[in-house]
Amino acid sequence: MTVSATEAVSGTPTAFPTGTTTLSSTSEDKQMFLELMVAQLRYQDPLNPADSGEFLAQSAQFTALEKMQDVSDRVGALLGSQMAFGAGAMVGQQVSWIDLDGETTHTGTIAGVTFGAEGPVFDIGGTQVPLAQLLSVGTTTTPPTGTTTDPAA
After folding, report:
1. Which of 9, 44, 98, 138 is the most interior residue, by most CB within 10 Å?
2. What CA–CA distance (Å, rounded) separates 71 from 81?
3. pTM for the full model?
C-alpha cells in the first residue's frame, strides 16, 4: 500500500484557522493508518512476508505528511495573527473603500475592527467594510467625478 503525498490534505482554508477540524482529522487518519497496517500484518502470507523496508517507508511517508500538515497549520495561525495586528493598528486611520457594486467609493475613519472567519471587518462610520474592499489607507485624495464621499465619517 502506498499513500500519495497529495491525497490526504483537504479542507477549506480560512484567514483565521481554528485547528479543531485538523486535530480530529489527524487523529482519525493516524487511527486508520494503524488499523490498515495491523490488518496488513495479520493477513499477510506467512510464506511470503511483506518487506520490512516497505513498512518503514510507509511509516516515514505518513510522518512526513503529518509534519507538513502541522507546518501548514502553524503558518496559517501566524498569518491570522499578523492580519489581526495589522488590522488593529489601522484603527483611527483615514481610509477609502469601494462598495460591492465596484463603482462607488467612500472615505472615512476606522472606528473599530472585528475578526471573522474571512478576516478583519472594519467599522467605518457605522458601515462594516471587509479588508478586501479598502482602496487606500492614510491621507485620501478627492474621489473621481461620479463617486460619493461618506458624510458619516
Report:
1. 98
2. 15
3. 0.52
